[in-house]
């Protein structure tokens, strides 16, 4: 049953990948290239390139790509359901508990420690993205221009993304 | 039904513009759910990110499920999830069909080269805005700084940092409560 093995492979990827993003790549490679041999190594590298051209979580992108390459659109859907299945069960279960006990001493205490930590976490993500995205003078200019726009205006992030893409085409062509 | 559709629409936009991994969705959800619609507060948003980061699975997926569940229960969680994954499902299928033709188009590459630095600026501004939502106490500033250094400099896994900070918060709150009870 090819659908079942596809579902189970991505169920595993979804269930054991903590932290998201590129941290998921080794696990995806293990399941898809080494164990099941659904993709060659070159195709796996293509996934990374394709994920950079596409929005959305890299694990979801990989699931869609592998499922599509292997079976077609129905495969893409099955693999995607597999990769988000664990998230759905765990998050809704935990959300229920947290919402119910939101004002208890324990939950309040836990979140009083986590809340400031998350800001540190996001700042750290920002630093690592800075290292991989701001690589030359031109990308620095784009970053600073966007920072200026965000500081001065209330432009929607989506407009900012579109603007920076067009700016990229202009600046990097010069 | 109207609420579910609206939730789907919001997270469709989130899914369609989350370039560059997990935290790239923070500025968009913040704008749509916290600022424009005021459906959840900034502190609740921070709590949701913390939970999403600590569970397995993509952060953007976990966050959308949590926000959807909080707003309209299990059906809300489903519509938010569907909205988040549908854009990448469609775009990846199209890219997979035409990858060989697309991969050499120079302007697409340049477009994304331009988007990447913008994501850094967007996430930076989000962190700045979120930092204003917590109280200016020595405790909060120390946790923020320690968490940042642990991850950015010491390369400690974010989940370990979240767990350690949760325990610290728990101990501090319990101790404060005890002091209050005595006095």
UniProtKB/TrEMBL annotation, chain A:
Transmembrane segments: 6-28, 76-99, 105-127, 134-151, 157-173
rRNA-binding listed as a keyword: no
GO CC terms: plasma membrane
Membrane topology value: Multi-pass membrane protein
One Pfam family it belongs to: Chromate_transp
Top-level taxon in the UniProt lineage: Bacteria
Keyword hit for Cell membrane: yes
Gene Ontology MF terms: chromate transmembrane transporter activity
Principal cellular location given in the protein's record: membrane
InterPro entries the record matches: CHR_Transporter, Chromate_transpt
Keywords for this protein: Cell membrane, Membrane, Transmembrane, Transmembrane helix
Location relative to the cell: Cell membrane
Record-stated family: Belongs to the chromate ion transporter (CHR) (TC 2.A.51) family.
Protein name: Chromate transporter
UniProtKB/TrEMBL annotation, chain B:
Pfam family of the protein (one): Chromate_transp
Entry keyword annotation includes Cell membrane: yes
Topological category with respect to the lipid bilayer: Multi-pass membrane protein
Location relative to the cell: Cell membrane
Keywords: Cell membrane, Membrane, Transmembrane, Transmembrane helix
Record field: transmembrane: 7-29, 74-98, 110-131, 143-172
GO cellular component: plasma membrane
Molecular function in Gene Ontology: chromate transmembrane transporter activity
InterPro entries membership: CHR_Transporter, Chromate_transpt
Similarity remark: Belongs to the chromate ion transporter (CHR) (TC 2.A.51) family.
Name this polypeptide is given: Chromate transporter
Organism: Alkaliphilus peptidifermentans DSM 18978
